Amino acid sequence: MNAIVIEKQGSPVTGNVKHRADWAEIGEPPVGSVVVRALASALNHMDLWVGRGVPGLELTYPRVSGCDACGEVVAIGDGVDAGWLGKRVIVNAAVAIERPVRASDGVATHIAPEYELIGEHDPRGMHAERFIAPAANLAPVPDDCDPVAGAAYGLTALTAYSMMVTKGDLRPGQTVLITGIGGGVATIAMKLAKHLGCRVIVTSRHQHKLDRAIELGADEGVLDTGEDWSRAVRGLTAKRGVDMAVDSVGKAAHLPCIKSLARGGAYVTPGCTTGPDAVTDLARIFWNQLRVLGSTMGTADEFREVASLFAADRVEPVVDSVFKPEQAQEAWARLEAGEQMGKIVIDWR
Question: How far apart are CA 127 and CA 262, in angstroms?
Fold first, then answer.
């Protein structure tokens, strides 16, 4: 079958990405799982991490990455409701890991499950004509929905929803700061915050991305010139600060985010593209009673909640560009260069 394959580990990743028409078929779905025929799949930074190598994981190559897709269920394994056959779906790539409960564990928390990711831990990712997914990780979408939009929505919307709403307790009318506008999580976080009736301030190193974000609904933009931009953010809020800072930039943006927060505000992060070793301000954190929250993906219940927003046309993703599988290197090159404003999608139709 056709698949987009990362042939070997290395950086830059783009040159190691190949479209292949002779990739092995995936076979029958195991118990509790289905085969999905891909209509569209979307790129994430995970596709770069897999190409470069993930610390702590023993990855073998060649392999297929991909953790976002919209497709049609074409086969079901034992124990799966036959009603899934023929359904158009989006897929939650985060597969929860169940660990044995030990007497010494104490009280566990439901808010921080452990995950493995289809396309990262599992080498049979979604950048292929057909892939396997657990039925529990599916969410139905309308048969007439745009599969490009569906593929662009899933994991980024889940990530944004879990960190902002479930963990961050975002409320209507609050002010949200989103750093590095342009990536998939940042743009869907902007859309979700506007759906909730929040004021949104975005940052970027590129004026054209700020301009585009305002066209898409952001209220204000702050140009990141490499200097501390927190004073500019506080100036937009009459010096009060923002209620939430959504930051996937990491090291380069963490301290300005902390300094931009209002008393009681929340700093939420799903990643750190510029590095994990940020400098912070502990005095400001405890004195202003700030919350610092990490978040990774989300639960199956959260996924169904965000899928319902998509199905009802309440929240839609920002799509940067669409490529055919044969143009895989062009798609990866755009992602690796950080040029995108929204999601980069592969159209398998």
Answer: 42
